[in-house]
Specification:
heterotrimer; A: mainly alpha; 2 domains; 7 helices; C: Cytochrome Bc1 Complex, Chain C
């Protein structure tokens, strides 16, 4: 708080180190207030804890059934002399493995994951999505131009590097964004109106989610020996 | 009156600066101890003795490798190539992410199963994400006339051994 | 049957021993129900009251709860598995075969552990996306989101380190590839890889290090972060319900505790 907008004065004439004095400053601008009115509350015990127990039991039962029906994979003894073909990581790393197919390890294995983690951490600190204002609510022509530039730049970049898997998610996403932009509030299409109300952060996260899902699916189902493209039904 | 003066510190400035000095001293000691623990931790975590296979391999007599052949020595993880210019050895570990490559005679190429890198007989990458060619390893002839390959000694490409 | 099971339970709860353990006493009053939460070290992580709107399934899909349940299943199955497992080469693989064929219920425990691990990764990811799409990371909950990101990383590291332990082909080559990604880190990469594996190749030292990380260090780290994560939910004003009053501002006064 700068000197200028200080709306109070305080003075002490005792030795504050020896005789602590508690002071309350009341300023004119802000005051504590209750912003929630009539929110219905229930007792955590038993209402919430019972629901949690039911949820826990359902997932435990489901996992026990899965474990009774399917056995965990176990291959041959580890052999440093021979790499199985294809050598696949667990499914949640296959998106990363697919990226490593396109980019050098320092980009696909270090730079991209680190940037993703940093991006996730800073989300709440950069006021991302706090206003949650629809992307197209204001400055629509300017933002559409921005979208076109970013999409074109990404397309060129990914096409030059031949990263078709990333391109395959980026282009439909950009098309969807542009489609949602040209909507009027009384448009009959509900999906389109719903998309219109979504902020930029929604679009970025959704792009990331689709991208990650697509890479993982390609890695799991569409890669065979030598990490060559195969169709899952061509066995 | 003199007693009272003793009880209350005459200048409050002194007290806070003394506390500051001890505070900084304590913080400094903790930082030093932290740095020391890091150094010791690093030393402790790096094993000084490793029980790993020797990098030096005896590949047998040279005359068992016909000219134009690429032979996989799986245990050592190397290829012994007898080209027209002479012998050389390549590491069989992919330079991309360390998978074990395999010689594919039908293609005349060395192929990596993990991310699809391909190398030719000279170790030069022809396809895939590998950043570097397969390294050439030092080949020598022992006193008994055996081929000796040292996996830990990478030599510049196109150093052939003639017998 | 003059006295039902309920009566016996009631007597038990009135007994001196029970009341010395659970001080809340029994009864349907809100005071007793509050004390059931307040006077229990573990339940104290919850607030005494919860917003009714935040308990609906459609709000959270209970993804955070389910992640925690899978974590507990993993601890409960992992500890018995440790009793039949030697982290040495090649004994580790023989132990896998023993668990499969020689140990009673060994196969089941291993299956449950493996599938729960997959489920946990899936649930933690789903939880993260759900929290994002509902905007539940907004202030004052921003630091709890960061803890959540750390917990995601702990989850991934847990499953990565666990992946090596069976010492089969799948394990060996997944870790070989993963550890070579580490060495792509500029400057420090090869050192990090050497320290993680305890050698230049994936071998006995690497197996032992991954075992200690998987069974001791990472579960402890995860447990501590989960503690903070839950406690912060309460301190940040309870579960985000997305209702009009519960916007980005910290709640100054609420009927909590």
């Amino acid at each position: 708080m700068s000197e200028k907008d200080k709306k109070f004065a305080a003075a002490l004439d005792s030795d504050s180190r020896r005789t602590p004095v508690r002071l309350a400053f009341l300023t004119r601008r802000t005051s504590p207030h209750v912003s929630v009115k009539d929110e219905p509350f229930v007792m955590t015990w038993p209402d919430a804890l019972f629901r949690i127990m039911v949820a826990a039991q359902l997932v435990a039962i489901a996992l026990v059934l899965v474990s009774l029906l399917w056995d965990a994979p176990l291959e041959g003894l580890a052999d440093p002399l021979q790499t199985p073909n294809p050598a696949k990581a667990p499914w949640y790393f296959l998106g990363l493995q697919e990226l490593l197919h396109y980019f050098p390890p320092v980009v696909g294995g270090v730079l991209i994951p680190t940037l993703v983690v940093i991006a996730l951490i800073v989300i709440p600190y950069f006021n991302v999505n706090i206003q949650a204002e629809g992307l197209w609510v204001r400055n629509k022509p300017q933002r559409l131009r921005m979208l076109a530039i970013v999409t074109a730049a990404l397309t060129v970049f990914l096409a030059v590097l031949k990263v078709w898997a990333l391109l395959a998610a980026t282009l439909p996403m950009a098309a969807l964004m542009a489609w949602s932009a040209g909507v009027t509030p009384d448009a009959p299409n509900r999906l389109r109106r719903w998309l219109f109300s979504k902020p930029l952060s929604f679009w970025i996260m959704t792009w990331f989610l689709i991208q990650a899902a697509l890479l993982t699916i390609i890695g799991v189902y569409f890669r065979g020996a030598g990490w060559e493209w195969v169709w899952p039904w061509s066995e | 009156m003199p007693d009272e003066q003793k009880q209350t510190p005459p200048v409050p400035q002194d007290q806070s600066s003394r506390r500051e000095v001890f505070g900084k001293l304590g913080l400094g000691c903790m930082l030093a101890a932290g740095a020391g623990s890091l150094a010791f931790g690093y030393e402790f975590l790096s094993p000084n003795v490793l029980y790993e296979p020797s990098p030096i391999t005896n590949a047998g007599k040279p005359d068992q490798y016909p000219v134009g052949s690429v032979t996989t020595n799986a245990e050592a993880g190397i290829y012994i190539v007898h080209g027209p210019e002479g012998f050389y050895a390549l590491s069989a570990t992919c330079t991309h992410l360390g998978c074990r490559t395999a010689w594919a005679p039908e293609l005349g190429l060395i192929a990596c199963p993990c991310h699809g890198s391909r190398f030719n007989q000279a170790g030069v990458k022809v396809a895939g994400p590998a950043p570097n060619p397969l390294p050439w390893l030092r080949v020598s002839i022992s006193d008994e006339g055996d081929l000796i390959v040292d996996r830990s000694a990478v030599v510049p490409p196109r150093q052939f051994l003639r017998t | 049957m003059a006295r039902s099971f309920q009566n016996y339970l009631g007597d038990l709860r009135e007994s001196r021993v029970w009341q010395s353990i659970f001080r809340s006493g029994s009864g349907p009053s809100n005071l007793h129900r509050s004390q059931a939460i307040q006077q229990n070290l573990y339940l104290h992580l919850f607030s005494v009251k919860s917003r009714r709107s935040s308990l609906a399934i459609g709000v959270t899909w209970y993804l955070g709860t389910l992640s925690m349940v899978t974590f507990l299943i993993l601890v409960a199955t992992g500890i018995p598995l440790m009793l039949y497992y030697h982290p040495s080469v090649p004994q580790a693989y023989a132990d896998m075969k023993d668990l499969q064929f020689a140990v009673s219920a060994g196969l089941f425990l291993r299956n449950l552990h493996r599938w729960s691990a997959h489920a946990m990764v899936l649930l933690v990811f789903a939880h993260m996306f759900r929290v994002f799409y509902r905007g539940a990371y907004r202030p004052p909950r921003e630091f709890n989101w960061v803890i959540g990101v750390m917990l995601l990383l702990v989850t991934l590291f847990l499953s990565y380190t666990g992946y090596l332990l069976p010492w089969d082909q799948l394990a060996f080559w997944a870790i070989t590839v993963g550890s070579n990604i580490m060495s792509a880190v500029p400057l420090l990469g090869p050192k990090i890889r050497f320290l993680t594996l305890g050698g230049n190749t994936v071998n006995a030292n690497a197996l032992l290090r991954f075992y200690v990380l998987h069974c001791v260090i990472l579960p402890l780290a995860g447990g501590m972060l989960v503690g903070i994560h839950f406690w912060r939910i309460r301190k940040d004003g309870g579960l985000y319900s997305g209702k009009s009053g519960d916007e980005s501002q910290p709640q100054v006064s609420q009927p909590h505790e």
